[in-house]
Amino acid sequence: MFKKAYKEQHITFRTLFKKGDIATKLSFIVMGAANLANRQITKGLIFLMAEVGFFAWFIKNGVHALAMLQTLGTKKQGLTYDNNLGIEVLQKGDNSMLLLLFGISAILVCIVMIILYVINLKSARHLYELKAAGDPIPTLKNDLNSLVNERFHMTLMTIPLLGVLFFTVLPLLYMVSIAFTNYDHTHLPPKNLFTWVGLKNFSNVITGDMASTFFPVLSWTLIWAIFATITCFFFGIILALLINAKGIRFKKMWRTIFVVTIAVPQFVSLLTMHNLLNDAGPINAILKNMGLITQSIPFLTDPTLAKISIIMVNMWIGIPTTMLISTGIIQNLDQEQIEAAQIDGANKLQIFKSITFPQILFVMMPSLIQQFIGNINNFNVIYLLTGGGPSNSNYYGAGSTDLLVTWLYNLTVNTMDYNLASVIGILIFILSAVFSLWAYTRTNSYKEA
């Protein structure tokens, strides 16, 4: 009876503490006690060493790291008079940046320790249930065999999860935390301290001084993402239909020519187009020599024309990708359905509207959503083509063609307003995540999955 209950549901930790033996109860205080009492020496020592090491670190460094996280430093670096030397010497102060990093790291270490503590209790509960059922206690060899067999996935995931925790989650939490501080060009450590300011930075970006830059840049970001996605999608489909049309010869050659733009690294294409469209570039030079223009066309220096140029260049890069995907879909369409439509008198436009396009859209809708989000964060096209320019005196740290992501870069590298850059990063994430979830759940691909 117990074996069946054991497989279906475990006892609670509260019941375990009440009914367990001394070693089991001691596991709630001394990690690994139940394992050591049941001759699982190696596992017990690992739990015990983890607990001892944690408390040694916590007393020596952890308490200070968590305490300083509240203030981010109180002692400012500066010159103080040394009575012995009779001169002013540089006094070391607190580094708010390091204190924030160490404080977040301390929180993560505590979380990892809590997880280990729960694993310790689960191990003690498992031993209690095995003994109550009359089953043998697993040896070290049994545990190792389990880790390379039925629990092999846990073995493989342990190191990557720790890597994600400290190399992805930690920097992410650090970046998010900066959004709630005044870490800008006037509060750069170690010379200056920065402190917590709550939601002040968000208020500044949405309703304060930065709103006059944020909303225009946000508007252009959305316009760019919409046009960049739609143009590549529709023209990619048209190109695929033209190449796959009956009567077109050398189809493989045409596909290969357009695929070359994918094979060439994107930054090479963008830098090449930047040089071609420059005011003193080859295109303007040829047009002048032909007598078609007297002054250079400001492809990249006029705010409106620069935006149009960016969208056109992006089409050159993005259309072949859509063309390839659409070609695969078109070649696998139900030909009997198309032939039946032709027999019923449908023309090519009606077939495309009612059969071809809906099926392409059904398959590519998730990819379209992904492309839209990718275009919102498309750093390369803007940075390598225009660098965010031309400059705009009405914006703070942004040019006329800057997207939110390139503005974030400028705030970090050029103006060193890390708090504002962090806020922009959080807002980009919220915008992308909310739209993705909303759009994905409304696609036919998702509903029919």
Write a compact overview of the structure shown.
This protein has 449 residues and is mostly helical. The chain has helices at 2-8, 13-19, 22-26, 33-37, 41-71, 96-133, 140-147, 152-178, 200-206, 211-244, 251-263, 266-277, 282-289, 303-331, 335-343, 348-376, 379-385, 404-413, 418-440, 444-447, and strands at 78-82, 87-91.
Just name the CATH architecture of the largest domain: Orthogonal Bundle
Oligomerization state = single chain
The termini sit apart by 41 Å
Report the total helices. 20
**What is the 3D shape?**
flat
Unreliable runs: 1-8
What is the fold-level CATH name, i.e. the topology of the largest domain? Answer: MetI-like fold
Major sheet: arrangement of strands:
1-2
Order of helices and strands: HHHHHEEHHHHHHHHHHHHHHH
Q: Mean pLDDT, rounded to whole units?
A: 90
Describe the main β-sheet briefly: 2 strands, antiparallel
**By helix and strand content, what is the structural category?**
mainly alpha
CATH class wording of the largest domain:
Mainly Alpha
CATH superfamily of the largest domain: MetI-like
Measured as a percent range, the helix fraction is 55-70%
Describe this structure in words.
By secondary structure, the chain is an all-alpha fold. It has two domains: 2-196, no CATH class; 204-447, Orthogonal Bundle (MetI-like fold). It contains 20 helices and two strands. The protein has helices spanning 2-8, 13-19, 22-26, 33-37, 41-71, 96-133, 140-147, 152-178, 200-206, 211-244, 251-263, 266-277, 282-289, 303-331, 335-343, 348-376, 379-385, 404-413, 418-440, 444-447, and strands spanning 78-82, 87-91. Strands 1-2 form a two-stranded antiparallel ribbon. β1 (78-82) and β2 (87-91) form a beta hairpin. α10 (211-244) runs parallel beside α14 and α18 runs antiparallel to α19 (418-440). Residues 1-8 have low confidence and may be disordered.
